[in-house]
Amino acid sequence: MKLRRAPASVLLLSVTLAAGGASEDDKAMVDWMRTHAVALQTPEAGRGFRDMQPLKQIVGNARIVALGEATHGTREFFQLKHRMLEFLASEMGFTIFSIEASMPEAYRLNDYVLNGNGDPAQLLKGMYFWTWDTQEVLAMIRWMREFNQSGKGRIEFTGFDMQFPDVAMRTVHDFVAKNDSEYLASLQKASDLAREAGSPGNSQNFGVATASFPVKDAAGKKVRFSGYIKSAGITRGFAGLWWRVDGASGVLAFDNMEKRGVTGTTEWKRYEIELPVAANATNINFGGILTADGTVWFDDLTVELDGIPYTDASRFDLGFESSTPRGFYTGGTDYSVHLDSQTFHSGKQSLQMKFLPAVAAKNSVDPKIAASSWKNAVQHMEATRNFYHAQGISDHDVDWAIQNARIVLQGLQAKSGAMTRDQCMAENIKWIADHNPAAKIVVWAHNGHVAFGGWPGYEPMGAALRKMFGDQMVVFGFAFDQGSFQAWEPGKNLRDFTVPAAPAGSLDATLAATGIPLFALDLRSAPKTGPVAAWLHTPHQTRSVGSQYSDDTAQQYWANQEVASCFDALLFVHTTTAARKNPGP
User: Which of the four, 69, 174, 307, 573, has the lowest number of CB atoms within 10 Å?
Assistant: First the structure.
């Protein structure tokens, strides 16, 4: 598919901006983007690299190039990543590809890519995620095999996720049974505990509603954040309001009512938080939280700045009377968070957070206990290296067995809250890099993972990698204006969704206003002062869709981010289509 001519809607938006439909900073930003964009002729691989040559300057001497995506189900994103991989392997000497998928299962595909062993379609299904089981990803894998056969270079297929323990566990068992049989009984006990603890994965052990507050409105002022809370059956933990202020040096102010939070069963009562917002604040987040069991309701939230009520109802619905919790992201594993029309303080609705004991109860073993057992397993295998080597086992085989044990441990640590999934994935990418010191690596994951900032209170994978690799890593975020993608509709099934043009003032709409349908943009080349710098360091909305989506809650799938604090560069596709599923078994 070639994208050459800007659609009429793009040209119309460009005219609107030029005619005075946007701020001076918006106009300056569009002009700068248009001047510095690297226009690409097509997202499809196999079309040559003439239009991509300027990307060599963006990538430079980087050892890691991370490629994000604004959705997990966009055909053009996947095609463009394939083309980027083809370019980086063919023109810049990159030799390893690593995807956001379970590590040992992904490595099985490497045997096909390097040696032609196995059926790539079945191996792709064996990575579990429907997100990657698409025609676009399969085409890329087949190209990797052809590239290795061509003699033009070498590219390996790897993965770095840790959410599924079964294959890793079996790999460790096979290794220990063959080479360390006296330890096998202890390892079996550890495995039994891990299975009873439930599937590892990314567990957010609280319910939360999060919104971003405009820094320019609050900087240098004292904020009072208040609201009414009602609770039922909270026997551990607490519920409360929260407010957080971030600056360049980290957290500047934070209160989540932890020491005075709501517990037990209570009727509606007003609570408040007061704290200063520093003049040099760069980001503000706020909302409600439930860290416990039971149910809690929030209603009639208010924000006052130096005693003056904040009244921008278009940004947030602080009374929760809209069809969705406008302005708020809601979620939490083991929790439901939704509007409740049966219980409210005033109006017709409130926001309810509810712990789901039936979901949590399916795990009968504390994951901390299971994690401790697997930590012992990793330590035992590390301490037994010399014994393994004395039996003639290669360093590669020992390292791989220990890494599989570490994958199981990481999953349990994520389940118990001792580590985040992003921290684990960053460690696994570092493991790949450390064991291939001469390699240059292409990383594939969601924007929310590859970003090196932009998620207050949470360190994404990209932030951890930036600490590890510094300017040896270049991060490309992906964005689009309108079109289709596939996603899982909560409570229903996997299907295609279509979204309209992004709203004016968003990052996505501003990129579209350039009139260039497909391009790359180096954000590091932007001016350090002036309107362009100010725009890039002001939060703007951008679509952020993971594996799930619903038209009814579309507003939740926007991130409010300072783009220059998240990515080194952007790849933009104006109009998208949904990724195409591979045929079933």
Answer: 307
Burial of 475 (0-12, 13-18, 19+ CB in 10 A): buried
- Angle at the Cα of 381 from the Cα atoms of 380 and 384, rounded to 5 degrees: 85
Instruction: Locate 561 and state its tokens.
Output: 């981010």
Which amino acid appears at position 415 of this protein? K
Give the torsion through C-alpha atoms of 60, 64, 70, 75, to 10 deg: 90
Taking CA atoms, 179 is separated from 185, 266, 388, 398, in Å, by 13, 59, 7, 10
Give the model confidence (pLDDT) of 200-219 as tens digits.
Answer: 443 446 788 888 899 999 99
SS3 78: helix
**Phi, psi (rounded to 5 degrees) for 88:** -70, -35
For all residues of the chain together, what is the average pLDDT? 89
Please name the residues in contact with 329: beta carbons below 8 A apart, sequence gap of 6 or more.
208, 209, 210, 211, 556
How many residues are there in the chain?
Answer: 585
State the helix-helix crossing angle for 135-150 and 75-91, rounded to 10 degrees: 10
pLDDT digits (tens, 9 = 90+) for 547-581: 889 998 888 899 888 999 999 999 999 999 999 99
R_g (Cα) of the chain, nearest Å: 25
Query: Which residue(s) pair with 272 in the sheet?
Result: 226
Residues 420-444 as b/e (b if ≥16 CB within 10 A, e otherwise) read bbbbbbbbbbbbbbeeeeebbbbbb
DSSP annotation of 565 reads G
pLDDT by residue (tens digit) across 266-320?
A: 999 999 999 999 998 888 889 999 988 899 999 999 999 999 999 887 788 999 9
**Residue 233 contacts residue 295 (beta carbons within 8 Å):** yes
Query: 310-327 burial string, b = 16+ CB within 10 Å, else e?
Result: beeeebbbbbbbeebbbb
SS (H, E, C) 392-428: CCCHHHHHHHHHHHHHHHHHHHHHHCCCCHHHHHHHH
Q: Where are the alpha helices (DSSP H) in 119-250?
A: 120-125, 135-150, 166-179, 184-196, 215-218
Percent of the chain with pLDDT over 90: 68
Residue 15 confidence (pLDDT) above 60: no
CB 212 within 8 A of CB 278: no
Which amino acid, 226?
A: S
Beta bridge partners of 296: 231, 353
What is the distance between the alpha carbons of residues 13 and 32, in angstroms, rounded to a whole number? 16
Q: Which two tokens stand for residue 448?
A: 């929310």
Dihedral (CA of 30, 34, 38, 43) sign: positive
